[in-house]
Amino acid sequence: MNKFVRVGQIINTQGVKGQVRVWPLTKDPARFMQLKRVYLEEKVPGCPDKLTINQSKAHRNVFLISFEEIQDMTTAEKLKEVYLTIPVEEVPPLEEGSYYHFQLEGLEVFTETGESLGLLRQIIETGSNDVYLVRSEDTGKEVLIPALKSVVLQVDLEKGRMTVQLPEGLLE
User: Fold this and answer.
1) Residue 168 in 3-state DSSP?
2) Whole-prediction pTM
3) Residue 66, CA distances (Å) to 44, 45, 121, 169, 171 in order
4) Which of 65, 68, 78, 81 is nearest to 20 (CA)?
């Protein structure tokens, strides 16, 4: 089964010819200018799963996108709140030591002494640095870990694990 990654969310329609407003879910929103097609994350009655992008234009902090398959506002309205995705194989590679959120979510997090803290369940963007919400499956206990190079010692995507050195007093 192919894995897909969210790249945007349709937040509203624009005009009467089927154009939509898309909130980008990417660190590089300019990627919307290069995308040729996207997939709907969920089935929408009367709409194909794959949409071909005719035009994409930046407008304030959203993108105005028209699709070949969507020609009227009535059909476009069905797409409100739907996420747009691309196959994971089409995600551009990052420089070494950098990771996409989808790569990190679900990793098992361990301390440098080997203690399992749980699974990375959510990445919270705070503006200065991300914060990882890690939840133990056994106890349900949650810990918030700052995503700093001084804290995150190692990420091993193949083994599905992250090793961290917690700041003193974080678990108290």
Assistant:
1) coil
2) 0.73
3) 17, 18, 34, 51, 49
4) 65
pLDDT tens digits, 21-66: 999 987 777 788 889 999 999 999 989 999 999 999 988 889 999 9
Burial track 12-32 (b if 16+ CB lie within 10 A, e otherwise):
ebbeeebbbbbebebeebebb
Name the amino acid, one letter, at 71: Q
* C-beta separation of 155 from 100 below 8 A: no
What domains lie within the chain, and their CATH numbers? 4-88 (2.40.30.60), 101-164 (2.30.30.240)
Tell me the CB-side half-sphere exposure of residue 18, using CA atoms within 13 A. Answer: 14
53 vs 135: CA distance, rounded Å = 39
